[in-house]
Amino acid sequence: GVTVCEDKNLIQVRLETPTSSCSIYLNGAHVSSFIVNGVQQFFLSEKSAYEPKKAIRGGIPLIYPQFGPGNIQTHGFARNMQWSIKSTFSEGNGTIGIKFELKDDDYSRNIWPNSFRALYSVILHPAHLELRFSNKNTDIKPWNYQLAFHTYYSISNIQNVHVEGLSQYEFIDKMKKAQKFTESRQNVTIQEEVDRVYVSIKPDTPIVLVDQSNQHKIILKSENLNDAVVWNPWVDKSKAMADFGDLEYPNMICIEAGQIEKPKLLSPGEKQCHKHFIFPSSKQSPSL
Ligand code: TA6
């Protein structure tokens, strides 16, 4: 089912199936929780703000129309604008979905002088989450955009996890002056601050987060998203973030599906749709 309620002074929508649930704030159309068989898949910082126009630290910040620093504010404005509910729906086999809409307004045009309409659907399946982002150029001139689902995963401990599926891909290493390297490891592990954009990932390449200590895996697949970010702030960056605890970094990892290295160009009237799928699988019994 679908319920709308107030949570931390923000409007929140809750989707439920018999085996899964998902919570989304209208502020940023921000997915903050995804529970499957009693297990919370996402990390949320204890120190996150929950205020209009502020990004929530955790869950899935929706990064649009710009990734990272650049002409407009870092990671764009979609994650701190108020989205509206366009519809709720089911696509059969136990799914429950909700579609949010965002259009340009004075606030966005003041930051990014382009007319757009974005539709973002969050579809809760019995054991996985599906995200669909579609945007249309409603302007009279072309513009380009980047997009990323900046997902924070909850993990037992950063020492016990690795990421599979990235070997042989090139990546832009933000920790090394954005130089490009090639990933040689089958299992990508994290022992320091990591901030990398893996680029030109073949379609249908599953990226797998493996948490050995609780035998938990999360399989990620995307359509029309060519890049994937792996990020952990580690010690110093954690201290530099006011909305992130100094000792939280061992319990999270960001693996983000995005269109980053090559922004998409949209002509007037043109639309583009991007999809991302999050499949947890766990041998552990549901947490009581
Ligand atoms: O996705 C990684 C990254 O680009 C890092 O460079 C770090 O800045 C992170 O995003 C968080 O950015 P935020 O603006 O949410 O604090």
From TrEMBL:
GO terms for cellular component: cytoplasm. It comes from the Eukaryota. It holds the Pfam family Aldose_epim. It is an enzyme of class 5 (isomerase). This is glucose-6-phosphate 1-epimerase. Signal peptide: none annotated. Keywords: Isomerase. Belongs to the glucose-6-phosphate 1-epimerase family. The active site is at H150, E256. SUPFAM superfamilies: Galactose mutarotase-like. GO terms for biological process: carbohydrate metabolic process. It catalyses: alpha-D-glucose 6-phosphate = beta-D-glucose 6-phosphate. CDD domains: D-hex-6-P-epi_like (cd09020). GO terms for molecular function: carbohydrate binding; glucose-6-phosphate 1-epimerase activity. It comes from Heterostelium pallidum (strain ATCC 26659 / Pp 5 / PN500). Its EC number is 5.1.3.15.
